[in-house]
């Protein structure tokens, strides 16, 4: 028996980076990952890559800020598999700009993807989890759920907010055997971070190497990036929680950048 045999896990933002690795690792341990992402082609390509290993996987088009798409995507999963055991709310973006002239539209866009997306996907999955008396919800937080950095006002605000959402769900979900936890990675080399390096260099007036060394990895214990594999380990740990003993928690995976 593998840890996630027959479990159905909806993973948002699973066509790229951290979400994709979580889907691959979940499938390798017997789970059926639902690859939910903006673009059906890239989601389907990821699902096909996983199916090529002999595992099952299913792709759904889901903009997590769109209530109708979230409801339809989860309905499609229920129609196919009859349940959703695990939700990994992972879809996210980054926009870096100084607070003093942060465009309101960018503020709202970022908060919507991280917070509305977490809320809408949670609500859509919860009714099925409550009916089944089982659910494991994992939110993708960040060291920025605990710590601030310059230029990241909405991101830091949203990532702190996810901890509040997880704590409420931990309390409300307990009687239905639904747990909620947050994984908080340090910097991971994904498209989201690769895009930020030149942007931060320009905003801070330093080189890209200096952004990596003196901004991103400055406070780690070993100058190393966190890997997608490190993050998947922590997510699957929470996704496999046996009971409510492990709920309402947040776990930082950051090479010691942030210590509790
Ligand atoms: P990524 O850019 O590689 O992947 C993000 C995925 O989310 C993409 O596939 C994208 O299409 C999808 N997405 C974006 N907006 C969406 C929407 N509205 N609806 C559905 N899907 C959408 O980024 P990543 O680094 O893998 O980030 C994944 C999560 O990890 C994010 O929540 C991010 O904030 C968090 N995180 C990343 C890092 C890091 O250093 N990379 C660190 C801490 C936390």
Number of domains: 2
Radius of gyration: 18 Å
Largest sheet: 7 strands, parallel
What is the topology, as strand order, of the major beta sheet?
Answer: 3-2-1-4-5-6-7
- Strand runs, count: 7
What is the name of the CATH superfamily of the largest domain? NAD(P)-binding Rossmann-like Domain
Which secondary-structure class do the elements indicate?
Answer: alpha/beta
Order of helices and strands: EHEHEHEHEHEHHHE
Give the integer mean of the pLDDT values.
Answer: 97
Q: Classify the fold: give the CATH topology of the largest domain.
A: Rossmann fold
Structural commentary:
With 260 residues, the chain is α/β, with parallel strands linked by helices. The chain folds into two domains: 8-186 and 233-252, 3-Layer(aba) Sandwich (Rossmann fold); 187-225, no CATH class. The chain has eight helices and seven strands, in the order E-H-E-H-E-H-E-H-E-H-E-H-H-H-E. Bound molecules: nicotinamide-adenine-dinucleotide. Nicotinamide-adenine-dinucleotide (NAD) is lined by residues 12-13, 15-19, 37-38, 62-65, 90-93, 113, 117, 140, 142, 185, 187-188, 190-193. Nicotinamide-adenine-dinucleotide (NAD) binds at residues 12-13, 15-19, 37-38, 62-65, 90-93, 113, 117, 140, 142, 185, 187-188, 190-193.
